[in-house]
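Hi everyone, sorry if this is the wrong subforum. Our group has a chain we'd like a structural model of before ordering constructs, and none of us has done structure prediction before. Sequence below.
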Amino acid sequence: SLVVRRATRQGLAVVVALLLQIPAWRAITTDASALVVAGLAIVGVGLAGVVLRALRATDAVVMIVQTLIVAGGAVGLWQVLAPRQSPSGLVNGAIEHLQRSVAPVEAHSGLTVLIFVLVGLVALLADALVVSLRRPAWVLLPLLVIVLIPAIGPRDRSLPFASVALLGIGLVLVMATARRPAFAPGAAGALRHLGLQAQPGGVQLGRA
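Answer:
Right subforum, don't worry. Here is the predicted structure as tokens:
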């Protein structure tokens, strides 16, 4: 249906828009695997939304499944990277690592898990705003979160032009999917209300 196709386009656009911002996180960590994990969080949350909506799942079900993906992914990373540490010890270790280091910091298992959770939650928020609430312009908020966090990490706290450009590209991409076809069902109803009827030979004026 038209609604499912629009939701699919918007969901995929959100995924691409967020992925475009991930390279900026090299200002926070030198660990390439952490950036890969961040990308997986975005893809996992976004594709779950696309698939579930194609199966006509409700927005509540979509959000619950996406939340479980973020939580399950975080637990999985914890068990793989630091199975002997408690969750609180993992988080405290990541915080201490950030406090002792200067960005971009070296690899740390706790920091990788925190990046996955943070980016996953931002992806969930973006998907909910754009697809569930049908507010494509609001994607600017999660995009800014992804871009501005790396900007405050380095000492100079500058925002590279490339990050601004990728932010603009992502925003335009999402907004482009919000455009309605000229003769969508809603447009056709408006034409009928104005007394315009579609005929094989073109559009003819009828009686309202």
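For your construct planning: The chain is about 65% helix and 5% strand. Helices lie at 2-19, 32-54, 59-81, 87-100, 109-132, 140-151, 161-176, 185-193.
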